[in-house]
Write a structure and sequence with these properties.
The protein is of the alpha/beta class and about 425 residues long. It is built from 15 helices and 16 strands.
Amino acid sequence: MEKSKVGLVGLGTVGSGVARILLDHGDRTARQAGRVLWLEKAAVRDPAKPRGCELPEGVLTGQIDDVVNDPEIEVVAELMGGVDRAREVVLALLAAGKDVVTANKALLAAHGPELFDAAREAGRTIAFEAAVAGGVPIIANLSQCLSANQVLSLTGILNGTCNFILEKMHAEGVPYSEVIAEAQRLGYAEADPAMDVDGTDTAQKLAILAHLAFGARPDWAAIPRSGIDTLDLADVRMAQQLGYTIKLLGVAELTPVSQGVGGLQLSVGPTLVRSGSPLADVPGPMNAVKVTADAVGELFYEGPGAGQMPTASAVVADLIDTAVGRTRLTFQTLKLWSKESERTPVADPSDSVARFYLRVEAADEPGVLAQIAGALAAEGVSIASFQQHASDTATVPLVLMTHATTEGAAERACQKIAALKPVTSQPVRLRVLG
């Protein structure tokens, strides 16, 4: 059977999983690809370091150039992580005439236009199913299976670390500081989990999905985002009492453009989701994406969002698609990250519309609620419900749910509330889904 020679750059957790599939299940991949996916070279920083798989003699190398300059290697999986060095390697691989598969969402979010332009100029392709939601095939579904549709909205749990932490906070009533330590012990969180828990990872993935689903080219760093690292257990408990579960969501919603207002609304942050709904019930370190489209309606995708074998599964699927030629057809048609593919403007974040949960800590004295209501009314924000809970201290928590309003109006109203004399701290403001 004909061979397609494959190279790997990086042989960490995911890279070792890819190598295991290629070496242990060559018959399976050959049936799917119609040819043998032959692991020719795997480049690593330290060849002496123990690996999670056994490689045939001569495959492992400490020189990336051994992969870049090998004329027989047709497709390379970039699994080294990072951004700057990965960018240099991918550009070199494309210039050397090789197709590229990557799981590097940070690389695509930062340098997608440059890399895809380079691929087109070189007549090569880039596939990236594993870059978002691990083993969940959301990239293929958005770029191929839903091509007859206009996607209207996309809502995703895109970070398994955060989902694990939030589930523990809800189920066990323990604060973030305790759960993050457990997540690190179990391997669900990095030693430095900042990019996961502050919303950066979700924003980068949302930027990629927004381009695929809507033809937008957002700067991921400009997407309004907040994380779970400052989430107070008091708000988790209050949300539960109100019938909600808090999830870290990335949301993209298409709104009509009228008189310069509208476009694609993007946001990342802890969000109240109605308990018992599919998104609220996504467990542990899983990922999920809800897509609403005009022809097919509502779809829900759920599965492992990280981990060695789920991510390796997506990488190998891309290697097969590239070997078969499916990637080339899709790549040529979609013109990803090109000006030709750009069709949807990104809306001003302040115009984004949502309902909000507000918790205000204020002195327990007459007239406080009237002052807060006045601050909201001054910005056109309507109160949908209100609760006040007894307190043994001089301050009481006032919890309000608003009707739909703009992000800008809610922000300005919270600034006015914070300036009120009876209010002791900045109000907590969380979005409410639906």
